[in-house]
Structure formats: C-alpha cells, structure tokens
Design brief:
Layout: E1 5-7, H1 14-17, H2 41-44, E2 57-63, H3 76-85, E3 87-93, H4 98-108, E4 114-116, H5 121-126, H6 134-140, H7 142-148, E5 167-168, E6 188-191, H8 192-197, H9 206-219, E7 222-223, E8 226-227, E9 229-232, H10 239-245, H11 247-250, E10 260-262, E11 269-271, H12 276-290, H13 303-311, E12 315-319, H14 326-334, E13 342-345, E14 368-371, H15 378-389, H16 391-399, E15 407-409, E16 412-414, H17 417-425, H18 427-434, H19 462-467, H20 471-479, E17 507-509, H21 513-535, H22 541-554, H23 557-576
Parallel strand pairs: 2-3, 2-4, 9-12
Antiparallel strand pairs: 1-17, 4-14, 5-14, 6-12, 6-13, 7-8, 10-11, 15-16
Helix pairs in contact: 7-15, 12-21, 13-14, 15-16, 17-18, 21-22, 21-23
C-alpha cells in the first residue's frame, strides 16, 4: 500500500515554482564544447535517434501557482515550444486556495493531464491520481536522466514507496563551482532613497536597520503627499511565514528548514521558536510596534493592500522576500521611482552573528510536475517535459528566442541593450510578450551552470545580474563596496552543504503527528499568538512569550518534532543508505 504523504512547509508562489532556483548536488558540470546554439535536434527527441512526434496535442494542466503573465502560449517562447514539440497547454492556475483546489481535484476522480500541486502532491498520490514516472523517464526522458544524474534517487517518493511521481521544478541541479551566483532575495530591505539620504550608513544589525528607518521617517513623514510607512509586514495567510516568522531564524544564524531547526550532528529537529535567541528577535518587533514604526495594518491587511502600499513608494523598510512583491517593484521602476525600490542587507540580531542565507541544501527533489492517470498520452507528456529539460529547452525558456531576446556574438549569448531596457523598465509587459520565466515545468540546471558551448543556461549570473540593475542600485552597491546584493552576505563556501536538503520539502505522512499537529499548531497557535505578542505592551512580552512556548508543547509540539525527525532521518537513509 502506498504511503500517504504531504509537505507541511511554507507555501511558495509562482516566482519560486517558475523561476530557476539554485540547489547543490554532486552532479557534474557539463563539458564545455560545441557550438553556442542550443542542443541538436537529436538531443531533444525522446531517445536521441527516433523521429520526434510533432503532431498537435493539447494537454490540460493545473498549477497551484499563480502567473499573471501567462499568455496561453501565444508569447514568443510558447510558440517556439509548440513548434518544437507539437504541445500546447490549457492551464488553470490557482486563484486562491490551492489546497482546496487540489482536494477537489482529488475527490472528483477526474484529473487534468498534467498537474503541479506544490505542497499538496500527497493528496493526489493517495487518491491514485498520479502515474509512477520511473519507467517513462527511463525509456523516454534522456535529458531528465542526464540533468538528474546521480540525484535521481532524490526524486523518489519515500523509503517505502520508491515511485517517482513528480519531475522536480522547485530545486534544480547545480554543482559546487556554480554556488554563489544567484542574487539575494531578502529578508531585510531598505529603500535606496533612505540609505542615500543618510549617507550610506552601516546596516548590519537590527538596531542599524531600526535607526535608518526611524531617522528617515522623522525627516520625511510624508512621501508624494501620502503618510510615510516606516515598516510594513504582510501577515495575510501564508505570507506571515516570510515576513514575520521565518526572519527570526535568518536574523539569529539559523538555517531555513521551515518551522524547524535541525541539529546538523544529531539530525534532531525542533520548532525554531524554541531557540532562546529568537525570543529577542520577536522582542525587537514588539519594540518596533511600541515606538510606532510598524504599520498598524500589518496584521489585518490583505496581500494586495500590502503590495499597493509598496507600489506607492512610501514604505521605507521591508521584511520578506523579493518575489512576494516583484510586480510592485516593477510598477515603481516603470513610474520612474526606482529610488523607492529596495536594497537587501545582511541584518542580524547582533554583529557577531552569521547569516546562513547562502547556505546550499542538497538537491531535495522538490515540488514538481506530475502526469496523472487520466493523461491522454503519457509518452508525449514525458517527452514534452524532457524537451524542456534538454539544453535547447533550457536555453529557450530562460533566454528566449535567438534573434529576438538574445543574439550570439563571438560565441557568447548576449541580450541586446534595447531588449535589456525593456526587460528592466517594462518588466510585466516583457514577461507576457516573451514568455520568459513562464515555462519552468521540468528539471533543469541551476543559475551559474554552463551548457556545452560554455554559455550559462540562464541569464542569471553575476555579469548579467549587474547589467539588469537600475542605476540607483549600482550607485548604492558601489557606495557599500559591493557588486551584487548577495555580496552583503557570507558566501556559500563558508557553510557545509545541508545533506538533508531543505527540511520544508520533506514529505510527511498525512496521518502522522508531524502533519496533523503541524496544521493545528501553525494556524491555531503560531499564526495567532505571534501577532498578539508583537502587538502587546512591552511589559507583557515575556509572560506572553512564555505562555506561547507552553501552548506549543500543550498542543503536541514535542510529538510533532519527534515525528518530523523520524521522517528526516528516513530521507537521509533513502538518499545515502544504499
């Protein structure tokens, strides 16, 4: 009987599911040889020798992500994909509660051809909705096998059920020499206008962060005729994870394993809130609220309201992830207010702490794309996913169409200046018209890795990242003696690779304590008590925090931790025990 699994970690949005992310593995780097163009036609076919079937076929698909730039494959990249594969997609994206969507799909017994369920894959596996892709990959997906390499075992469902139900899209395959090439995404951010006005002060501690916000706010109580907002948080449903709770780990030297921290020696997991040092981070948020520097609407506003405030240019400080508000950033740039966008700073509780933001997890398999038992043509479906994993497919979905979004000069892929200007200054329209970033539906190499021509698979590498910075970004970084925002943080090489991967991607049995209790504790305790503690009087903080920790254990936190530890160790046994 198949095990029932669910991933209980933080939810991610389109920017995570459809954007190339970096993870580390022992996979080897492709040899640098051959022409700068994409792969040969043979490499893109299922076996490398048979004639590809290009007859038209339309697959239905559900994605738990949201993609406002989806253009029904009528963009440049989409048209090229259809030309190369014969495949078109009829996608229904989540419009709100993807958990409910997946539950309804599973219970209906009628499934789309393809499905990307984010954290809810177990619901579909348990319903018998998903095909085991092991044989399909072996027979028809040479590119997926090539990219996965020795990490193919990380795609298996569990120690008891060794099926492969999903082709990973969340984490991609990297190699050690590709570490450290992606840029920082958060969590502590300040407007460029703020640090420039203050003469580029040192921003290293929470106190530095607070001082910058407070000083600028007192000097400029309004911006463009509207009340200035010193610091705004987003606690709308799962967003609370990224702007309120997870930053407590990042500011106190812990590595991100969702709601847990994992002892690297014993592999024992515990809720990260139990770390005594985190009490002091939340004490700081309580203090920020007490002195009027936190937006009073932080715990009642909706996500769209939060982003609208950012787009107005009057939010000085941010805690969160850049992918949460990229559309607001693009609006500011389009309106000529790039100085009101944000720089990303290495902020810790104290200057002697070391941020682990750049620590690399082992390839975790990750959330991905599955083929359902109702799929009209599973072989064509896996060949489609395999094309996307091919060198040709990866270059296409990341760079666009040669001659339109990039050119090859002296063997090097280059984005022409007029294209780059459109990409930076009119990003939403650019993404919709080109389709770049909308087709991350299959396994691929990470940012910083090179194809056989010696070119990068993605246009996300230091030189290109810097090329796409706005002038104010370059000015601010230069003032701090840095080239990229990532340079603000300790390097990946300063940390060991996390052998268990990202803890929040761990499959957890549906009926386990780690799943049942996690859902209860997250929504009924953590998401309720943390806001109450932040909004309380400073004199009440310690008693409320102590009560919060006691309430966690009263609701079964210790059982939940032991269960999570058990499955984390089983993952390690699955990956490395053979």
């Amino acid at each position: 009987m198949k095990s029932k699994f669910i991933k209980t970690s933080s939810l991610l949005t389109t920017a995570i599911l459809l954007t190339v992310m970096t993870a580390c593995s022992g996979g080897s780097k492709p040899e640098s040889s051959g022409s700068p163009s994409a792969s040969t036609p043979a490499e893109s076919t299922a076996t490398g020798s048979e004639q590809a079937d290009l007859s038209p076929i339309k697959f239905s698909m559900y994605s738990a992500a949201q993609n406002p730039n989806w253009n029904n494959m009528q963009d440049d990249v989409g048209k090229e994909i259809t030309s190369k594969t014969g495949v078109s997609l009829d996608i229904r994206f989540s419009m709100g509660d993807d958990n409910q969507d997946i539950a309804l799909i599973a219970s209906s017994g009628e499934y789309p051809d393809l499905i990307s369920p984010a954290s809810q894959g177990a619901t579909l596996v348990d319903a018998g909705a998903m095909l085991d892709l092991t044989d399909l990959i072996d027979k028809y997906a040479p590119n997926i096998k090539r990219v996965a390499g020795e990490n193919l075992s990380h795609m298996r469902w569990s120690k008891d059920d060794r099926s492969i139900y999903f082709v990973p899209t969340l984490f991609t395959i990297s190699s050690p020499d590709a570490e450290g090439v992606t840029d920082a995404t958060g969590p502590f951010m300040l407007q460029h206008a703020v640090v420039k006005e203050l003469g580029y002060p040192t921003i290293r501690t929470l106190q530095d962060f607070e001082n910058a916000i407070k000083t600028y706010y007192e000097k400029y109580p309004t911006i463009d005729g509207q009340k200035t907002i010193p610091l705004s948080l987003n606690a709308d449903d799962w967003n609370i994870i990224f702007t309120v709770t997870n930053p407590a780990m990042f500011a106190t030297g812990a590595s991100d394993d969702g709601e847990y921290t994992v002892d690297p020696v014993t592999k024992e997991a515990a809720l990260h809130y139990k770390r005594p040092i985190e009490r002091e981070y939340f004490r700081w948020l309580n203090h920020m609220n007490d002195i009027g520097l936190i937006d009073p609407e932080s715990f009642v506003q909706k996500n769209d309201q939060w982003k609208a405030k950012i787009a107005s240019g009057r939010v000085l400080g941010m805690i969160g992830e850049t992918w949460q508000f990229n559309d607001a950033k693009r609006t500011l740039i389009t309106e000529g207010k790039a100085e009101r966008t944000f720089g990303i700073y290495d902020v810790n509780l104290s200057a002697d702490m070391k941020s682990t933001r750049n620590q690399v997890p082992a390839f975790s398999g990750g959330w991905g794309m599955g083929i359902t038992t109702d799929c009209k043509d599973p072989v064509r479906a896996i060949k489609f996913l395999d094309f996307l994993a091919s060198d040709e497919g990866q270059v296409l979905i990341n760079w666009g169409v040669e001659g339109k979004q990039y050119v090859v000069e002296n063997g090097k892929r280059v984005i022409p200046q007029e294209v780059l200007d459109q990409k930076v200054n009119n990003a939403n329209a650019f993404l919709k018209e080109t389709g770049i970033g909308s087709y991350g539906f299959s396994l691929r190499y990470a940012d910083g890795m090179k194809d056989p021509s010696g070119n990068f698979y993605t246009p996300i590498f230091p030189e290109q990242i810097v090329n796409e910075y706005t002038p104010i970004e370059k000015e601010v970084l230069a003032a701090y003696g840095k080239t990229m925002w990532r340079d603000m943080f300790p390097k990946s090489s300063e940390f060991p690779v996390k052998e268990w991967g990202a803890g929040w991607t761990l499959p957890i049995p549906v009926d386990s304590d780690a799943n049942v209790l996690a859902e209860k504790i997250r929504k009924n305790v953590i998401w309720k008590r943390i806001p109450e503690i932040i909004l309380s009087k400073p004199s009440e903080f310690d008693s409320k925090w102590d009560a919060f920790i006691q309430e966690l254990d009263k609701n079964g936190a210790e059982k939940m931790e032991k269960d999570f530890t058990k499955y984390l160790k089983e993952r390690l046994d699955l990956w490395y025990g053979e």
